[in-house]
Design a protein that fits this description.
- The complex is a heterodimer of chains A (about 375) and B (about 250).
- Chain A is of the alpha+beta class and about 375 residues long.
- In chain A, about 45% of the residues lie in helices and about 15% in strands.
- In chain A, the strands form two sheets. A nine-stranded mixed sheet of chain A has the order 1-5-6-12-11-10-7-9-8. Chain A has a three-stranded antiparallel sheet with strand order 2-4-3.
- Chain A is globular.
- The mean pLDDT of chain A is about 85.
- Chain B has about 250 residues and is α/β, with parallel strands linked by helices.
- Chain B is about 35% helix and about 30% strand.
- In chain B, a hairpin with a 2-residue loop joins strand 3 and strand 4.
- The chains are: A alpha+beta (about 375), B alpha/beta (about 250).
- At the A-B interface, helix 3, helix 7, helix 10 and helix 11 of A face helix 4, helix 5 and strand 9 of B.
Chain lengths: ~375, ~250
Amino acid sequence: MIKNTESLIHINPDHITQYFIDKGFERVEPNMIIPADTVVNHMGEDIRRRLLIAPSPDGREHCLRPDFTLPLVLESIKNTDRSLKRYVYDGFAFRFPTSKEISRKSPEFRQIGIEDFGSRDLIETDVSVLNHALQVLGKVNFSDYDLLLGDVSIFYSILDKINISLSYKDRIKRLFWRGANDIIPNLNIDPHEVTSLNKNTLDKIKNNKNDYNAKDLIGNIAGFDKLHVFGGRDPENIINNYIEKKEIIDTQIIDKNTSSMLSNFLSINCSAILASETLTSFAKSYNLDLDQEIESLDKRFKLLNEGKPFLDSARFQTSLGRRVEYYTGLIFEIRSNKMKDLGPIAIGGRYDNFFTDLGSPVKVPAVGCSVYVDRLLMAGDKYV
Amino acid sequence: MSDKIVIGIPNKGRLQEKTFDLFLKSGLEIVRNNGDREYYGTIEGVNNIEVVFLSPREISIELSTGTIDIGVTGLDLIYENIYQADKHIKCLAKLDYGFADVVVAVPISWIDVDNINDLDDVAFKFRLASKRRLRIATKYPNISREFFAKKGFADYLLVESLGATEGAPAYGSAEAIIDITSTGSTLLANELKILTDGTILKSESCLFASLNARWTVDKKKYLEELFDKISMEINIDKINQKDFLENLL
């Protein structure tokens, strides 16, 4: 292909949709309007001011869909047909743009994407969804992109393997998802920050835990005769959390080795062909057994490279996908090579907990990918 | 359109009394012509200022649209009701009354929660365990969202409260609250405590000017005259004032 001629071809997003239909994806039109509380509950309060919300006469709020995956999963949960589904969607989603968004000013934006719900061959599905995403960009003659790859499941595996308390692991996960630049300094609790905790009170709890009822004990520690308001929390749980917190303060749990291990892991950013090599030497230097994880990553990357070698230009980043809590495995982002300020042109990955998080009684493996058409067109225009 | 300055004054309560007092000390008597139900008033002996009596919330909104030129209301309401308030409103003077803090408060029984980081921790576990987010009741949704966004805390759901917010954790419509407090006694009575880093805003009553009002040469002159009269009583920054007057359109 002669590169220079690409600039003359205008990108037609309809070709993307047609490509997916030709590949056997079923065209669907998910609900345009969904309950706002479901969205906010799922995506966090921050999303609310970017939603297009309208009240209904019964006082409930509804909003225009902020993306396609959410209404599609909600509809699929109601569906009793559990067979494998492969969907393609093409339409408008609605979110007020952030100040960083440069490709649009209006709240509506066109998204074209695919979902694969229920495929049991995880590796094959990961590879096929990413391959489709790359193929489709080729179809519309867009090649001026960077591909970023990541896999959050490796981070979770590492957490599983290190010997720290569950409560501490939750804390680390939370900071990971928050995208905190440096997780480690934020992990330990500054004892000065804590007003209600001292050694005497802790001993008091430990000694009396079985003698007191939890409510009295809390009142005792807080310095009140009788407390009635527990804000929906179980008093036992409050006390356990209190003890855990005290233990974190006492030990400042994370030792130097673990803390440098986590920092080093999260700063891995290498060429995708070197990913398994880099991870192997990382695992070795910290005595971690990541063989299975690395093998699984390697398999996927090899399959990806079979079609057309591209991994030499792709990057592997362990920090990819933070801030998007629902990803559980492979993550990928396609970004404009020239316009660094433009958000991702396409984004995708695996989210196996999405169904159960939204109330599905059964777990459904899910992989998807979405193209932000306005960004694609903007990056395409730059091409001329 | 008359070329008078329109000033918004609180329509009842202690804020109104304090405002009346302040003006009176400067020799300006605010008169509500036909008793308490009248929405318009005047200042005795000053014919270029028109007084409108509005709720503090209405004053903040009318200032942002420029329907009134200046007004007395709380800083909290300005920041809550006006998006990017600094672009639309200018604080001319702090009036030394109406002090109150907007704070994040949780049940006293939450002995494991002292600060926002702890709250984040508990909220996260709460969501994993119950598949729903911790609810926080407030009359200040905008201030609250902005504050939590800055703190990087997202595991919550705001519940807009219309009445007695402090009671929400007790009767179960929310787990925590964000509300205004001056002495803290209402919080205490409802078994709530303020987080150590949970003070969002220290509010007080201020005299504000609208940057969106139509500021004619005459009106600027009247405002300057008003400043001269009340500046003995309140601490209007002279440089700030000059700067402001010059920059008004």
